[in-house]
Amino acid sequence: MINSLRKSAEELFGRITWPSADEEDWRRTDLARLLPRGILDSNANLAGEIQDEENYLTSSLPEGFAGRVISENGVVTGLSSPELLRDAGFNLWWCALDDVPETLKVVGEAELNDSAERITAWHYRDMPGCLILELTGESDKPVLVEERLKCSKYTRKSLFSAPHLHIVAASGAKGAVIWSLEGTPEHDKSITPILNGGLTASVSPGAKLDITLRQNLGASIVAFLHGRIEVEENASVKFRESHFGTTLLKTRTRVLLKDMKADAQLNGIYVAGEGKHYDIGTIQEHRAAHTTSNALYNGAVLHRAIFQGLIDVWPHAAKTDAYLTNNNLILSAGARSDSLPKLNILTDDVKCSHGSTTGRLDKNQIFYLETRGYSPEEATRELIRGFLLKAFDNAPASVWKMLESDIDAAMSVSSLWADG
Questions:
Q1: Cα(162)–Cα(124) distance, integer angstroms
Q2: Taking the complete model, does pTM exceed 0.85, yes or no?
Q3: 132, 101 in Cβ contact below 8 A?
């Protein structure tokens, strides 16, 4: 039996067309030009369901983590000890789409209503199922979820994946989750692999949830990512995202402050390297009074990057305190960065503001580091590294270690500092 979430997604998908450059959110990411619609149609018409066999391979547990989950094309294939996860206060299970819990149905249908576009509907229509992580206690170690894009029986025609992670933090719970999207499957060069992923979270009263989305997919992959995080009374969420992979990336993360004293911190870093087109979006949605949020996104741009951020304050959300900042570092003569922070304030007595900067590396700073023994290339790399990591001051040690490795890999590409 088809559940209401899939039914709503099917109805929306069939009723509307692919996003076009006539729409403000997609004006700078024209899919007709960047990604021929025939590619979208061929992927969106794949039939067949993936069944979870529940025969997970045992995966090793990296030091410093409470648990590790390996998922391929949205279906769990590997899992470290379930006992250790339960001891750390986490419950985990995978369910098929027609069996998803009520909390996900409610959150998913709300996102379909708030973001009535075909890309989002496509995700909720075709995701094979959902990985559910329920946090019931307090843990000082994060859970690592590794999502991999894998070749399948459809590879000759297309390569598509629609993974979904849903996190539920119970009242008073505290913990962290890292969702790592990675890998480059071998595929026919005529194919454009597409990942259309979704992340949802429900943060109950008094809970504290830390979420890191790490995107380091192969350079030939196109990725669409949708996030919706709902934060209740006296609860807080720290959400951070990093983007180093894909050729075309379009994201939108909506954080809803639903009740009094809800708090959200959003942080992001990205390196839009040669040939990469990144379009990153955030929404800080204040629905209740006395709520707070702060977003800081730093990007290094060699080709094309767009940041679209919105602070949205509802009529009954007085005493809102919200801030939004986007900073971009231009690394080549041909690079372009569009920074579009916006405010939509529907009440009085609020503190809301935004800021944006775009510029090049300071040659005086490069010269100073050279006087301290750095080569021009080393000085440039260190300045870029410091600029990016400034946005991740609140990251746990496990995240820092992972992202420093990603930044080192990005810095090894000579074109990133050739025009510095």
A1: 8
A2: yes
A3: yes
